[in-house]
Amino acid sequence: MTETPTKPAPFDAEAAADHLTKTCNTCGVEKPLSEYHRDRHKRDGWAGICKACRIPQEREYYGQNREAVLTKQRLYYGRNRESLLAKDRAYYRRNRSKLLARDRAWKKSRPEVARAGALVQAAVARGRLHQGPCEGCGSRARIDAHHDDYSKPLDVRWLCRSCHLRLHAERHPLTPETDPNPTEEGDNA
Fold this sequence. Notes:
The chain is 47% helix and 13% strand. It is of the alpha+beta class. It has a two-stranded antiparallel sheet with strand order 1-2. The chain has a two-stranded antiparallel sheet with strand order 3-4. A two-stranded antiparallel sheet has the order 5-6.
């Protein structure tokens, strides 16, 4: 009686990332692969620079080349809008219950923020509140309602997404306790 050969299980790079190591080209420290970004252009499939070294480099580059980066992103989105939206819809379909649970948990943890946002949406839909251009840069794209005081839900400032995120980053800078992606040393440069 002969056994039929079985196919080996496919290699799961993400699962192996916690067990295999690599030395960072910048800091020279040996770290698990989970500390590196994936890079399909590299022979081993992982970037040569660890996340802790790469993130500050990317932030510095963005700070020096903000307009060029934003222009490139807008052009890419304009050329690939349909495929990007299709990917977003597919992701939502695959992860709908997880995303809805996350939204419910967020609303439960920040009821005053959720209430203010819902009231603004309702007021805009009823025509009682009119969305204006961004108060920061004058843009009319991706406008958010910013609340300086959540107890006054219809007292809002209209800001584009970029200006809104920048305002929140200035008001609430990341600390080692609040940074969702801290480095090993706690440095959040």
